[in-house]
Write a structure and sequence with these properties.
The complex is a heterodimer of chains A (120) and B (110).
Chain A: E1 3-7, E2 10-12, E3 18-25, E4 34-39, E5 45-51, E6 58-60, E7 68-73, E8 78-83, E9 92-98, E10 109-110, E11 114-118
Chain B: E1 4-6, E2 9-12, E3 17-24, E4 36-40, E5 47-51, E6 55-56, E7 64-69, E8 72-78, E9 86-93, E10 99-101, E11 105-109
Parallel strand pairs in B: 2-11
Antiparallel strand pairs in B: 1-3, 3-8, 4-5, 4-9, 5-6, 7-8, 9-10, 9-11
Classes of the chains: A mainly beta (120), B mainly beta (110).
């Protein structure tokens, strides 16, 4: 059974940093693209970033480029999102999502999410 | 800023048929946008339904189908069930690895 478990969310002050983790199990993690998608309270889904299977290729939404960094440790079956210079508008539930083996353009499995609150 | 537009809300009767659409601010949606459809019920994580315009995941009920309709991506529910009441999001690929969600359609089964 595919499982994605996010952690690392919490309350952080504007301008602060936070690192999210996503522990993956039930599939060969090193073979799949991975995404982060976020959802502000009461709002819609927003794609944040994705990374290819070996970590050599990453892409970001314009709203987080230069502030967020996606990475992965295939030996630990873990996906990360380093978030710096956090703003109020980054407040959201962050979901870890598995892509496909050969393409990022499919979103079959989602974690339960971790809440990040940016506030003073 | 690329805009993907969905109907804000739709209402359908149990057993009925409803079509949700997904329009791109840049022009007609084609298969090259690899439309995905995602369902989200209140308090739950999203669940994928459709990818690459028409393809279903193994868990997607037969009553859900994806298509292209009049320059838009479309999700049709035939024989709607009460448990289909949810928010539905489309997702389009814009090249350069850029992905954009629509604002979502709140489907009410009444």
């Amino acid at each position: 059974e595919v499982q994605l478990v996010e952690s690392g969310g919490g309350l952080v002050q504007p301008g602060g940093s936070l690192r999210l983790s996503c522990a993956a199990s039930g599939f060969t993690f090193s073979s799949y693209w991975m995404h982060w998608v976020r959802q502000a309270p009461g709002k819609g889904l927003v794609w944040v970033s994705h990374i290819n299977s070996d970590g050599s290729s990453t892409t970001y939404a314009d709203s987080v480029t230069g502030r967020f960094t996606i990475s992965r440790d295939n030996a630990k079956n873990t996906l990360y999102l380093q978030m710096n210079s956090l703003r109020g508008e980054d407040t959201a539930v962050y979901y870890c999502v598995r892509g496909g083996p050969d393409t990022p353009l499919v979103f079959p499995y989602w974690g339960q999410g971790t809440l990040v609150t940016v506030s003073s | 800023q690329t805009v993907v537009t969905q109907e804000p809300s739709l209402t359908v009767s149990p057993g009925g048929t409803v079509t949700l659409t997904c329009a791109s601010g840049t022009g007609a949606v084609t298969s090259g946008y690899y439309p995905n459809w995602i369902q989200q019920k209140p308090g739950q994580a999203p669940r994928a339904l459709i990818y690459s315009t028409t393809k279903k995941h193994s868990w997607t009920p037969d009553r859900f189908s994806g298509s292209l309709l009049g320059g838009k991506a479309a999700l049709t529910l035939s024989g709607v069930q009460p448990e289909d009441e949810a928010e539905y999001y489309c997702l389009l690929y814009y090249g350069g690895a850029r992905l954009v969600f629509g604002g979502g359609t709140k489907l009410t089964v009444l």
